[in-house]
Amino acid sequence: MRKEDWYEAAATMADIYVNSHVTIAATFAQNSNDGLFSNRASATYAKRLKSHPHLHVLESPEPFPEGPLTGTLDQWPLLSRAWVYQERKLSPRTIYFGKYQVYWKCKYHFASEDGCEDYEDIMST
Length: 125
Fold this sequence. Notes:
The structure is a single chain. By secondary structure, the chain is an alpha+beta fold. The protein has one domain (3-124). It contains three helices and six strands; from the N terminus they run αβββαβββα. The protein has a four-stranded mixed β-sheet with strand order 1-4-5-6, with no helix packed on it. A two-stranded antiparallel ribbon has the order 2-3. β2 (45-48) and β3 form a beta hairpin. The protein is elongated, with a radius of gyration of 18 Å. The two termini are 31 Å apart.
């Protein structure tokens, strides 16, 4: 990309993010070669009851390891990049693909697959 083209594109980035419907972020990707999705175990699964083999119960494992105590910016490479700051602040809605779960953030709400709202502090930095 020519330098002049980059300057022209950079000047319109704020408008692009402010007017976007949703921004998709590969939050756990170490670099631009990493993908959006990761291999992970299912958050919930059906377990057959031994006492009643025809019944299944949905179970969830322990909370995802991306918790408030372990969720530092070191584990969220995308969020530590300076050029991403405007995307995060200007986008009206963002879907963050983490290593273990997906997060949704808009102006009014934050949600994660495991229902924990403590992650909002990490996403706000």
